[in-house]
Amino acid sequence: MAGAMHGDSSANPARLKAMTAKHLILRKVQIQFRSACDQIVLLNKRMEGVLFRYNAARDSANRSFRYKLRLRLAVVEGIRNMFYEYANIKAVQIVNLRRDLFGEIVEIVNDENAVGRYYGADDNSEEDDSFSESEAADDDEDLTEDDEGMSENSEDILDDDENLSEIDGSNLVNNNPDTEEMEIA
Q1: For 143-163, how does the pLDDT look when each residue is reduced to its tens digit (9 = 90+)?
Q2: H or E stretch including 44?
Q3: How far apart are CA 50 and CA 135, in angstroms?
């Protein structure tokens, strides 16, 4: 019996070391996610500026300048989409680490209408949680979408280990029955 207790006591320092390492990884991933969100906001502002200049060039019938602006717009949009993918990868890592560390049962929902909210398991949400191809096409057409609130929300939320956060225009659904529906400021 003493040997079994000794085995348990030797496992505790290893478990403590593993949990500490996971906490450090979680902090690092949250910082990376936050910086990706900030870059997305900056790239959206850049796209707005280029789109404004493109519309002005189109109105003045300056074809050569329009080509350069369309090219720049395509490059900025491609970089922004790359950051979206990166932020989604980091969001999945955050969800997995929070589940391992805090026991949170979380699913990522790609519904832009529910951004900024998370729901308890008891909620009967009538919102459609699917992301249709027509919505994706609408997003591609709208080059000046506003993602400035994402950065502000992600900083407030990611600092608190007890909360769930919206991720890259997506939100998380908290299936923990102890959590009530809350608005994220």
Answers
A1: 333 344 444 444 433 443 333
A2: helix 2-59
A3: 23
Q: Are 176 and 163 in contact (CB under 8 A)?
A: no
What single DSSP character describes residue 170? B
| pTM, rounded to two decimals | 0.53
180/118 Cα distance (integer angstroms): 9
Nearest to 134 by CA among 142, 122, 123: 142
> Under a CB-based contact definition with an 8 Å cutoff, are residues 123 and 175 in contact?
no
Q: Which residues contact 161 (CB under 8 A, 6 or more apart)?
A: 26, 98, 101, 102
Per-10-residue mean pLDDT for the chain, 185 residues long?
Answer: 47 87 95 96 97 93 87 96 96 93 78 40 36 38 39 40 38 42 36
- 159 three-class SS: coil
Gap between the terminal Cα atoms of the chain = 54
Pair 27, 134: CB distance under 8 Å: no
